[in-house]
Recover the amino acids of this structure.
């Protein structure tokens, strides 16, 4: 549990630093294109989405102090190795940290992407689009980890993509239950005068 709290603490630190910059960027965008009060929920969603990305990238791309040199880590191309290793850790050693961090963590970190993309953008309502974006973000992260002291893992790709899909499933059920609420997060089309 301490490790999870440490991850969340690190994420909140980076989000706290980046959030004012994200707000300033959005203020410039509002000034440039005009801001309508009815777009408030959309803009709040955009701030949350970029904060989620900052938190995600802070834990996956930014090197940590005290990391060992990159030549000591590797690339795992063996599919489903994480399932086997996690099973062995839990069953034989009674060690749950790999399950929480490597398995659930990879899924949960990407669920907001699958939820927020269709919530904010009408064209992302077809499930394949946010899932594909989640896969691309995960692939970007794995490629960026290769030269660092982190290992790059093919299992992270499918776990992250699964997380994006599960986030989309959550969005789907929320949209079915509260269609006017989810519709309020989408930006209104501009009237051409």
């Amino acid at each position: 549990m301490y490790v999870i709290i440490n991850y969340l603490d690190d994420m909140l630190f980076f989000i706290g630093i980046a959030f004012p910059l994200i707000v300033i960027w959005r203020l410039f965008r509002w000034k440039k294109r005009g801001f309508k009060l009815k777009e408030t929920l959309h803009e709040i969603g955009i701030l949350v989405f970029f904060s989620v990305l900052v938190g995600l990238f802070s834990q996956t791309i930014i090197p940590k102090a005290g990391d060992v040199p990159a030549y000591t880590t590797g690339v795992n191309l063996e599919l489903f190795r994480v399932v086997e290793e996690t099973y062995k850790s839990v069953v034989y050693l009674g060690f749950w940290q790999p399950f929480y961090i490597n398995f659930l963590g990879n899924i949960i970190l990407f669920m907001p992407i699958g939820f927020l993309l269709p919530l904010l953008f009408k064209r992302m309502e077809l499930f394949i689009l946010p899932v594909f974006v989640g896969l691309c973000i995960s692939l970007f992260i794995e490629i960026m980890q290769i030269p660092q002291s982190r290992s790059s893992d093919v299992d992270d790709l499918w776990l992250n993509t699964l997380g994006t899909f599960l986030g989309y499933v959550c969005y789907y059920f929320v949209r079915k239950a509260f269609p006017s609420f989810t519709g309020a997060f989408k930006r209104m089309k501009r009237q051409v005068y």
Summary: The helical segments are 2-33, 40-60, 81-93, 97-108, 111-120, 128-145, 154-177, 179-183.
